Amino acid sequence: MDSDMALVLGVVFALLSIPSILSAMTDGRAPRASAVTILIAGALIIFAIKTHPGGYQISDVPHAFVTVVARYMP
After folding, report:
1. Which residue stretches of 1-74 are H helix?
2. Closest Cα partner for 2 from 54, 49, 62, 61?
3. Given a cut of 90, is residue 42 above it in pLDDT?
């Protein structure tokens, strides 16, 4: 897995876990599954930052998304 893919997956997992966290807190439950998802997302983002030469800047994130989407679109 290259660093762009790890970054994109980490950001997507983090964004998708937000509704789950809000739902669990609204229902009075502990957001266990969401917490695990956030940990996985954080690990993927840290992996991406560490393995990308020179790291990532905030302005590099949209380019990473476009690169990954373009790679898998026919």
Report:
1. 3-27, 32-51, 61-72
2. 49
3. yes
